Amino acid sequence: GQQLNQSPQSMFIQEGEDVSMNCTSSSIFNTWLWYKQDPGEGPVLLIALYKAGELTSNGRLTAQFGITRKDSFLNISASIPSDVGIYFCAGRGTGFQKLVFGTGTRLLVSP
Amino acid sequence: DAGVTQSPTHLIKTRGQQVTLRCSPISGHKSVSWYQQVLGQGPQFIFQYYEKEERGRGNFPDRFSARQFPNYSSELNVNALLLGDSALYLCASRRYSGGAEGTDTQYFGPGTRLTVL
Lengths: 111, 117
Hints:
By secondary structure, chain A is an all-beta fold. Chain A has strands at 5-7, 10-14, 19-24, 31-37, 44-49, 55-58, 61-65, 71-76, 85-92, 99-101, 105-110.
């Protein structure tokens, strides 16, 4: 099935460091969403973006909707151990369009 | 308000059997979608239902079917199970007021872990 290109595939960082990950698509999307998933759980919505160029923050998380509408970025500042998990981007077109997910970024944080 | 609920949590079946998974959306949400997540991959879209009608279908065989009830809950049925059907099945609900569609996001349940032996 279709999946968006997400990078990096995995990251191992020290507590307190900042993290950046991005997601690219060959298709244009009208909505970009970022989710975090813990093992055996469903994805939890972190940030939703609805307009090209939009920059939105949620605590230590900041995400941007790319101008071309084909990419999005997520930044996590001052990482903490509970940030550990898999982060997925997801894009959606208009109307009843499905969500298309990225391949995921696995984040490990060392105390 | 309760979030999206799914049952059962875990399920073990053998090849050739049939399975039914259940989902209750967030109160007030009228749209339910189903996703399959194979280990190590992102979720893949299976179905979307809105107001009891199928609105979208992913690239899955006819062995997969679903329906939505008047109370907006939903069932996903999979017939003639294959080993490759082993996955986490996720349900997501969305309000979809039909107005400002762009501000209407999707929330996931905890999933049903299906193992096919």
